[in-house]
Design brief:
There is one protein chain. With 256 residues, the chain is α+β, with helices and mostly antiparallel strands. It contains six helices and ten strands. Helices cover 31% and strands 32% of the residues. Helix 1 packs antiparallel against helix 6.
């Protein structure tokens, strides 16, 4: 009975190792799937307060790998890592600059879609004291799009003017994969918003904008998941060893 047990044990070991090797090869997909990364830069101060306030920044990152969003409150890290200018989140008449940082899960095979969503108040120009922020916009109709948005030096459009907050979304589709790849060089996109008002009144008083939040989202495909050579080699070696062990035991039984 002992020889039979050894024979059965050898067969089961061989089958188990073979099954593991085949499973590893069979479950390797062509692509690991689509992954969507998102980063939100937010100024927590009340956006309806018309006076300049200090920055109170928050950053939320969602990697897209099933892990919960990473939320961080802290101006120093956010300002340094995202290159956020002091004008972000405040009513200003100067360019607002910042970067969105991109973190991939695995190795990027190709970019599918990217979008930049900016929530901001944009008024041209600044009204006299005591008048509503959109006074000139309502009276003269000069709230036309006039605040250009550049990403890595590429003009992508204008902010939607008005107050209170207006949402402006810029999208880069699959047809813009070259542009998306360019924007994501060095794993970041650099955004510049310049307040520029049309007409002599705006030139005299200056346009004024305030960015409340900026959301960058990119969807991409990861490269095919291939077993590490060491893993496949170990499984193959184990399978071969099990077969040799099984044959050796059978010979020993026959010699007896």
């Amino acid at each position: 009975m002992v020889p039979n047990c050894n024979r059965v044990r050898g067969r089961w070991i061989s089958r188990a190792l073979l099954g593991a090797l085949l499973s590893l090869m069979a479950t390797t997909p062509l692509h690991a799937g689509l992954v969507t990364y998102e980063e939100i830069l937010l100024d927590l101060n009340d956006p309806l307060v018309f006076v300049d306030v200090i920055q109170n920044l928050q950053r939320t990152r969602t990697l897209g790998d099933g892990s919960p969003p990473e939320v961080e409150d802290g101006n120093i890290n956010i300002i340094v890592q995202n290159g956020v200018s002091a004008s972000f989140g405040r009513w200003v008449r100067e360019p607002i600059t910042y970067s969105h940082v991109f973190h991939s899960v695995g190795t990027v095979d190709s970019f599918v879609l990217a979008s930049l969503e900016i929530l901001a108040s944009s008024v041209s120009p600044t009204p006299p004291p005591g008048f509503p922020p959109d006074f000139f916009e309502l009276l003269f109709g000069i709230g036309t799009p006039d605040d250009p948005v550049d990403v890595d030096g590429n003009f992508i459009g204008y902010l939607t003017p008005g107050h209170p907050l207006k949402e402006t979304t810029f999208e880069f589709s699959t047809g813009d994969t070259a542009l998306i790849a360019l924007l994501l060089e060095n794993d970041r996109v650099r955004v510049t918003i310049t307040p520029t008002g049309p007409g002599p009144i705006a030139e005299a008083q200056g346009d004024k904008i305030r960015v409340r939040s900026s959301t960058f989202q990119v969807t991409y495909r990861t490269q095919a998941v291939v077993p590490e050579p060491g893993t496949a080699t170990l499984l193959a070696a184990g399978l071969l060893a099990a077969r040799l062990y099984s044959k050796s035991r059978r010979r020993q039984v026959r010699l007896r």
